[in-house]
Amino acid sequence: MTREVNILTDHDVAEGVKHDINDLENEQIGLEQRVDVLEETIAKQNKTIERLLQIVEQRGGNLESDAEEAPVGKQKPARDNALNNATRKSLYAAMGLASTSQLKAAAALAPLKTGGSYVKDRESSGKLLRPDWASSFAENVAWHDPMVKFLRAKGPTLVPALTSAILAQKSDQELLDRLEVVFKNAEFRKAGRVGGDGNIERDEEKQPRTEAEEKKENRHRGRITKACQLKCEERIATIEESEMHIPTEHRYILQPVYQSTDESDDTDVVDPDTETEADAEVHAKTTRKPWITRPPAYRHSETEAAIVIIDAALMERRRQYERNNKGKTSAHPRIRGKTKDTPLPFIRGNNHLRIPRGAIDTDWLARHPEQDTPFRIHDSDQICFFAGKKEVVVFVAQ
Question: Which sequence ranges form a coiled-coil region, renumbered to this chain (predicted)?
Fold first, then answer.
């Protein structure tokens, strides 16, 4: 067997190395071309990023569109949605409205003075803004300066994207310009020219509600008020008979506006809070179906636990009453349901009785910063309920 042996000469080695060098040079050229393409792409991306940063800075970090803030009758300024949202929500808060309200709700509040003013609210110890929608924004000068100060203080709380540092860079005139935008849009909604969905709305002044509509609404409101008053009276009687003691600071739980709502678990059931004009026959068949008691979502769990204890005594009182009258009359059955998201109430009279801060769910209050006002909340963290000498519930907020 013969084995072949290849012997490379110096010339062969040199030619092989030259070939390898040529391949490497070609590869280097290809890589350099690739680098050129990537550098050009990076340059384009940097320009795009710079434009986006400029847009974000102009809009205060909030890129959501806000059709409500388009000014009426004048050229639109550079859009700043965070500032627009804060301006609108601050105006709502100053008027005692929830931040989720619509401009038409603000426009529905009638002014109490020509040119607008801050008026003392009968339901609180503070003052509420009442703009004069029938006059121009310039004629509403009485509340301009206080509203600008309120916007600077409350805006960052209502819209976190608008920080105090950003607001500090805004002049008072810039804030007044934003207020004028909101004012004019609300003014148009009052006139019925612009609807929240872009459709023309009914002019409430030219086309008032019919007599039947007024009667139905008054009847509905009266039933709700009566139901809340009866529930209050029954709880008060239960507390007195059970020798429970409610500290004065916490007697807000015995006010009608603080009561849970009772809602039907079926559309045929008629109750004070979900009244429908069902015919008598349907009502007779369904009236004994239980109502769903829905506690307000702002109520702290410890407060709810105390009220459950009170209501347990109340139910025993009802059962005793039914035994005494041999079942001739009985209260409508109720079951406890999910919480209902409602605003904190203003409690009339009672020396401006307010809800202690510790009795409010902290997560709920964080989601509704516009409700955190001295008109509604008393800065006290302790919640105590007593039944005679026995302590029922003690809660101290951390």
Answer: 14-55
